[in-house]
Write a structure and sequence with these properties.
The protein is of the alpha+beta class. The chain contains 4 helices and 6 strands; from the N terminus they run H-E-E-H-H-E-H-E-E-E.
Length: 141
């Protein structure tokens, strides 16, 4: 959260892919790739926009580490609701992908309760998942 806040500098969105391993009982995040590390211009417009080639760097990292993309996370200036752009342009357009949205440019690194959690159903359809009361611990991906 601290890196999301710092990278956005309180004036623009920032984000990352969360990498880890899936098991029958869920998934665990053990690594992450920040958008601006794989595409230096990803945050230049104030909102997240990744060049298509940047995703190749994510897949290369997954291949090298044996991890997979568990979810993506990005910040919003206000609430943690999905924008129309978020709904229409998922970072990973695969059914079942999870997207997390952190409100207020991640200004509160300790309060995780306001994070929006969304699961992609395919065809630009999403469901909102309940936020865990005590943060993200125990959230199954």
């Amino acid at each position: 959260m601290r890196q999301l806040r710092l990278r956005g500098a309180g004036i623009r969105e920032s984000g990352a892919f969360l990498l880890g391993s899936r098991t029958v009982t869920g998934g665990w995040v053990t690594d992450f790739v920040f958008y601006d590390d794989i595409d230096p211009y990803a945050l230049a417009q104030g909102h997240v926009h990744l060049a298509g080639a940047a995703l190749n760097r994510v897949w290369d990292r997954c291949s090298a580490t044996g991890l997979e993309v568990i979810a993506d996370v990005h910040t919003h200036p206000g609430s943690s609701g999905q924008s129309l752009s978020d709904q229409n342009h998922p970072m990973i357009a695969i059914r079942g992908h999870t997207a997390l949205i952190v409100p207020n440019f991640a200004s509160s690194v300790l309060n995780l309760r306001g994070i929006g959690i969304y699961r992609h159903l395919g065809a630009r359809k999403w469901i909102s998942l309940p936020s865990p009361r005590a943060g993200l611990r125990g959230l199954k991906f």
